[in-house]
Structures are given as structure tokens and as C-alpha cells.
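Reopening this one. Same input as before:
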Amino acid sequence: MTLIVILVIVVLLIIWAISLYNNLVKLRNNREQAFANIDVQLQQRHDLIPNLVATVKGYAAHESETLQKVTNARAAAMTANSINDKIQAEQQLGQALANLKVAVEAYPDLKANQNFLELQSELSDIENKLAAVRRFFNSATKELNNAVQTFPSNILAGMFGFHKEPMFEVAPEERASVSKAPEVKF
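Same output, byte for byte:
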């Protein structure tokens, strides 16, 4: 009778461990799928940037340094391989695009150009979609991190190589400008 009770307890522990492991795998896959959604939006962003840069070049030939930074950041973002590398490269691209927006403010004719307005609208739409999929990615990352760090799943997580993953956050160099309220001038 004691042997049966011990066997039942062992079987229940094995089933419980399998369930915890499967949950960790599902959470990791959910995070990877969330980043795949980001990749789709990033590809649209990357496809749009050359058109935007070419339009701006026509009006702002002497802003070549800013345009070169956008082009270089886009190239780096497209060649990044790991999720963490992509996060870092996309943060740099976001910063370069923000600098491009500032440079564009000096060109009233460009701001009135229909092609530029359409490209800017598309870029704005993509940035909004990116914000939404980044929120989903961060939510999936939080769920995985919670499972990896909380007891008792943290025991299995450590045994099977699951670890805390980084969120898709604002780059440290951008944090100061993001924390500041925007200045509106007329």
C-alpha cells in the first residue's frame, strides 16, 4: 500500500514537472511569436525609409549627415540577428528617425510636398503599429520572466536553460528626451 502511494506521488510530481516545463516552452514561443510580429512591422518600416530619405534628399541636400545616419541605422537594423541585437538596432534607428523629423522642420516646402506627407503618414501608421506589437512583446516577455523567476517553475527553468529576457524599451540615451514634456511653439 505504501509503495502505491509513493508511486502515485512520484507520478503526480512528474506530471506536474512536465506541465511546468510545457508552460515555460509555451511562454517562450509566445514571446518569439510576438517578436515575429514586430519583425513584420519593422520590415515595413525598413521598406519605407529609403523612399522617405530619397524624398528628403531632394529638398535637403545639405542634411546628408542626418540622412546617412538613418540609412546606416536601417542597414544595421536589417542585419541584426538575435532578438536582443534587433532591439538595440531598432532603438538606434528610432533615434535616427527622430533626428530626421527635427531636420525636416526647417523645410516648409518639403512639409507641404504630397509625396512626403504620404510617406510621413505611412511611417506614422507603422510607428503606431510598432508601438502596439512592442506592447504585446513586452507583455509576453513579462509572462515568461514571471514564470522563469517565480517558485516553483524557476527550479525547472534553471535546469532547462530558461532565463530572464529583456524587454523592448526606450534606449538609455533617449530616455531623457522621452521623459521631457514636448514643447509646442507657434
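So the earlier flakiness isn't reproducible anymore. For the record, DSSP finds seven helices and no strands in the chain.
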